[in-house]
Amino acid sequence: MSGDYETHYINQPDITYIKEKPMSCNLRELTVTSLLEQAQGEISKAKTNIEIYLHNPVGIGEHPDVLGAIQDQLDVIAKAEERIDVINKHFLDHH
What we know:
Radius of gyration: 25 Å
Number of strands: 0
Helix content: 55-70%
Largest sheet: none
Strand content: under 5%
Number of domains: 1
Distance between the termini: 51 Å
Structural class: mainly alpha
Shape: elongated
């Protein structure tokens, strides 16, 4: 490259106005958000499974005990909801 620093970067946009959070804050936010979204996904999946069991119980060959299979999915929902409650209580800033 030819030219000195000033000449080379003269046409670069001024981005000094952009305020970024420190990396640790972004990482914390991303981690907590990911944990919440994972729990919400587990709830959605379990609810879908329950709806399938309720609407077509004979179509689920590997689960002859439909009530037991539904209870297992309810337990998944309960665990995920509890995880969401813990995250909200202990790791989210509520001002």
